[in-house]
Design brief:
Helix content: 55-70%
Shape: globular
Number of domains: 1
Radius of gyration: 22 Å
Distance between the termini: 61 Å
């Protein structure tokens, strides 16, 4: 499910980038403003992410779709090392497969330099700015996920908030780093484009940023405040994680039994009287 989810995300990224950025596309010819075109891609990718998070598979796998998210939840104690390993492996495989399918479906347009397999590379501001930008946006996204998913008011809206933030990032941050936040996403595009420019920063900045967000959240709130590793848990899908909702349900059941027992005892006493 994680592999398929990220694979579909990469297909969507390649399709929308090709349709909007290829010089032969009517949209590219009609809209000359690069900011507007990035906003269109951002909205499309934000909606894609939201759809995947709230899909039946996303509800079951947790919709990490990013090794950095998985590693952070591993650090926070919500995954076993074995599950985390296979999640990361599936995410890399899914990203590569998604770009490969896109290359078949969109050949030859996807290889045009304006599209180039939706590759992520540093912008004109340079490598240091790209690294800092990837670090910051990854930190903010993971902070949003942890605050929203573990809060009382917005847990069901975590996926929507994440999708909105993703759209904003693509619109405003993409000129700095290409907007990756995801080592698997970068690798998937690089494998077919053969563009490995400063690839290391996309394998370091996102996990560092998300791990830092996890550590700050745990320092401020405590590890017990991280309830589960799902972006959307308000569903009936089976949970494979070290899930705090199960413990909460058990405590609730015990309290209900205790209260029910006390009520029955009082009723019996009244009957005896």
């Amino acid at each position: 499910m994680e592999a398929a989810g990220l694979g579909l995300f990469m297909i969507s990224a390649c399709v929308f980038t090709t349709v909007i950025e290829h010089p032969g596309s009517p949209i590219r010819q009609w809209i000359s403003n690069a900011l507007v075109r990035r906003m269109m891609i951002g909205i499309a990718m934000g909606l894609t992410a939201i759809g995947l998070i709230y899909s039946p598979w996303g509800k079951q796998s947790g919709a990490h779709l990013n090794p950095s998210v998985t590693v952070t939840y591993l650090r926070l104690g919500k995954l076993t090392p074995t599950d985390a390993f296979f999640y990361v492996l599936a995410q890399f495989a899914g990203a590569a497969a998604g770009v490969l399918v896109s290359a078949v479906l969109l050949n030859p347009w996807i290889s045009h330099p304006a599209v180039n397999y939706a590759v992520t590379v540093p912008g004109r501001s340079g490598t240091l700015a790209a690294f800092a930008a990837e670090l910051l946006i990854s930190f903010l996204l993971m902070t949003l996920i942890l605050v929203a998913s573990n809060g009382k008011s917005f847990p069901a809206f975590t996926g929507i908030l994440s999708g909105i933030l993703l759209a904003v990032y693509i619109t405003l941050e993409a000129p700095l780093s290409g907007m990756s936040m995801n080592p698997a996403r970068t690798l998937g595009s690089a494998l077919l484009s053969h563009v490995w420019k400063e690839w290391w920063l996309y394998f370091t900045a996102p996990p560092i940023g998300m791990l830092a967000a996890g550590e700050l959240y745990r320092w401020r709130r405590g590890s017990s405040c991280v309830i589960c590793a799902k972006l959307h848990h308000q569903n009936q899908k089976r949970c494979i994680f070290r899930c705090g909702f199960r413990e909460m349900a058990k405590v609730g059941s015990r309290e209900e039994l205790h209260v029910g027992g006390e009520r029955r005892a009082r009723i019996d006493d009244l009957r005896d009287d």
